[in-house]
Design goal:
The protein is an alpha+beta fold. It folds into 2 domains: about 80 residues, 3-Layer(aba) Sandwich (Aminopeptidase), CATH 3.40.630; about 110 residues, Gcn5-related N-acetyltransferase (GNAT) (Aminopeptidase, 3-Layer(aba) Sandwich), CATH 3.40.630. The chain has a 12-stranded mixed β-sheet with strand order 1-2-3-4-5-12-6-11-10-9-8-7, sandwiched between helices. Strand 9 and strand 10 form a beta hairpin. The longest helix is centred in the last third of the chain and has 15 residues. The protein is globular. It starts with 5 loop residues before the first strand and ends in a 5-residue tail after the last strand.
Length: about 240
């Protein structure tokens, strides 16, 4: 069996990196930076190290991990990654029904990712914006998922990506166009997410949020989420060019 990495795809499109049973997936972090993003699906530290070098060569030399639970960071730190930022993990039980959304939030059967990306760019800044590939990745992170949205005059004003896996649900992403912030649309999207997940048998909902995002934390805590005390870490490494 060859020890050579096998790469499928062409940067800056998504890459799949394999060697034997080891597998990773890479893409640009977002459209705001030339840095790379690498997910290790399975593999050793040696494979991760080689995949990192490959992605660093394709990007600007900096590679970021996904948001990881503490126990999953060890292999990354072993090959030189260091914590860059952390996220709080919030959770809410879904045993009791919440208030209904005031607006008719609907599932978008065929998401227009360009429209979703436009709202995301308006709602977030720089590093925290997602690319189209990142949004599609978030929607595919669980076996069952949907995009919920609300339109004003045929224009998307806000969206939520929510998914379920067994009895847990995950609010993967939520954004409201700043033109419509402060009007309760974020609350309606959260409540519609509760309804969607509960109908599919979910008993709890989990999300992550930046500690500095006071408005988002206020929204989620107001809807019954509590801080689990768990912190996810995003790690990064910079590989200097050998040329």
């Amino acid at each position: 069996m060859s020890n050579r990495l096998i790469v499928e795809g062409a940067w800056p499109e998504n890459l799949t990196v394999t060697r034997g049973w080891a597998r990773g997936e890479a893409r640009p972090w977002n459209d705001e930076t030339a840095a790379g993003h690498l997910r290790l699906l399975r593999g050793s530290s040696a494979f991760l190290d080689e995949a990192t070098s490959l992605v660093a060569t394709a990007s600007d030399g900096t590679v970021y991990s996904p948001a990881l639970y503490p126990a999953s960071t060890r292999i990354w730190k072993r090959v030189g990654y260091q914590p860059t930022s952390h996220l709080l993990v919030l959770e809410k039980g879904l045993s009791f029904r919440s208030e209904r959304p005031a607006r008719p939030i609907a599932a978008i059967s065929s998401p227009d990712w360009d429209d979703i990306l436009e709202v995301d760019r308006a709602a977030f800044e720089g590093f925290w914006r997602m690319s189209r590939a990142g949004l599609v990745e978030a929607a595919g992170a669980t076996p069952n998922s949907t995009v919920l949205g609300f339109h004003i005059e045929d224009r998307l004003a806000g969206y939520a990506i929510v998914g379920t896996q067994r009895t847990a649900s995950y609010l993967q992403r939520l954004a409201v166009d700043p033109e419509h912030s402060g009007q309760g649309l974020g609350t309606d999207l959260v409540r519609a997410s509760f309804d969607w997940a509960r109908r599919r048998g979910a008993r709890s909902m989990i999300l992550n949020v930046r500690e500095q995002s006071t408005a988002a934390r206020r929204l989620y805590q107001g809807e019954g989420f509590h801080d689990t005390g768990v912190r996810l870490e995003i790690l990064s490494t910079t590989v200097l060019s050998r040329t």
